[in-house]
Structure formats: C-alpha cells, structure tokens
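Before we proceed, please read the two lines closing this message. Report back on whether the structure tokens fit the sequence:
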Amino acid sequence: MPLPLPQLDDLTYAELVELARSQIPQECPTWTDHNATDPGIVLIELFAWLVEASLYQVDQIPDRTIETFLRLLNGGEFERGSDLQDSIQKTIVDLRQPYRAVTLKDYQNLILQDWNSIQRVHCVPNRNLDGADINTPAPGHISVIVLPTIATLPSHPTEPTPPEPSLEQKTGIWNYLEARRLLTTRSHVVSPRYVPVQLTADLYLQEGANPTHVLTTAIHNIAAFFHPINSEQYWSGKGWQFGRSVYLSEVYQLLDQLSGVDYVGNVLLNQTQAEVTIAPDQLVAIAIDATGLIIHERSGGSEKQFTVPQSWRLQHCFFNHGDSWQLWQPTLNLL
C-alpha cells in the first residue's frame, strides 16, 4: 500500500484572509475598521495572495526534480522520454520486477521465471555441494540444485539415467546469479544427488485380474511416485520431495491401491531396509530388479507365480517423454 502524500497547499486565499482578520482583536484591539478600504486590510489581502502563491509552489514537484529522482533509480545513463509520465510508469514497472537474490525463495523464483529449460529448483543454505566436503557447514554459501524440464531430456538415451542439468545450463545459471547475489553470499549451481533404492515386492492378484496390466501399472505408478520432476498424481505432480526419506509403509500403500491387487507382501527396500534415509540435497533413484516384482495370479482356485522376465529388466523408473512413459524395454510377453 503506497504512503499517502501530504497536501501542503491546504489553505485558500479567502481562508488566509479570514484567518488574519480573526487575529486583529487579539493582536491590536484598537484596530476597529475592518472594511476593505482600510490600508491594513489591503495589506492583509496582499500578503494572503502572496502566501497562497507560495503554498501552491511548495505543493508542486518540478519536472527537473522528478528527472533527478528517475536518474537515481535507473542509473546515470537514464534519458527522459518525450512523455515524463511514461518514464515514471516504466521506472515503477522495472522496480517491481524481482532482480536481487536474497532469500532462498528469491533464488528459486528468479531461475524458474527466467530459465524455461529449468523445471525445478531446490536451495540448500550454508552448504557448498560443489566442494570436496559437502557435509561441512559453510556459512555464507548457498547451493542451488536445478533439474531440467522434461522436454530438454533426450527422448531415447542409450543408457537411461536420472535427469540432470547440462554443464552449459549450470554455468549459465551461475553467471546469471552472480549479478544478483548479495556481496557476502557465495552461490553454487549443482546437479542433484540420487540415492539408489532397489524395490522388491510380492503382488497377490485378485482372481481374474490381468497380470500384464497389473505389472505394467505397478511399474508406471512406481516410476511416477519416485520421479523427481513429473510425479503425475503424486506430490501434486511436482516430483519427489528433496530430503524425503522412503518408508516401507508408503510403498505398501502404493502397491495395495493398484486395481486387481488383492494384497501385497514381502516389500523390501534395498533387500533388507524398511526405511531409506535421504539427505536434504538428495532424491531417489528407484530400481526394480529382474526378479523384484513377483506376481501371484489366481485362477480356478490355483495360483501361478512368475517374475519379470530378464529381457524386460527395468533399470531406473525415471523417463517420461512428452505425455507418455518411455521404458525402453521390449514389450512384456507373459504367454
């Protein structure tokens, strides 16, 4: 809300004359002739006219003064346009544009606003994640972790890997922040660190459920659940949260909600763990072993058990290109 400007020119000529007349009985009781023909009244009216003109000038800001203010705000190279009001409006608009990076939110907003190739930004204060000892507190340092947009990732990589920014992106963002950081702050632009998590589970299907569909849906949902950029219906579609640990109960819930699954058993993280701790600068790289998802199919009172074929091994569930998931494995054939 802008500060209200004081009105200095708040007395009219008539008010000034009347104010002076009201002081006559107190200042000069013997002055009894207050007619307009009286020389004293003439002087009062003359001075009232002069004071009114002076008050009007006090309440005005000359154009040259405004130009001086605009030059201070825009720098010494500022040149006034043909319309002073247009110059004022442009200066106000420029001032409202965020430029300086002070808080963690400033770093995130500036990068997401000006870098279309970056989809996600996470800042870790008092850490130099670009140094040798990333766990030692580094006062005055801020590490900026960036993730590229899905559209900038290769559509068919030979070796699927978790999404990371290119060297050109990191260098460009660092140069961009150098002009905007505080003098006492040191910024570092880095890639995220991924913690590998291997998932194994037994899925017991309802009778008549299609095992191929359940298996495909399970892999798809696992990939989306742990995806660092596009998590679809999970985490508001913004990706797995930095520093969020992986809990066994969440994986049970994820798999148990699959259509066609009766119940889930023997869920393990990294074969033995019930929880995987994630640091504030880390994300999850989920992997499913070739024998990791064991499907138990019920048909006519009997149960069939089979595992994911070796030829369909899923290395990392990270890859969403466009609007569809790309697994880069042969089509699953369970016949």
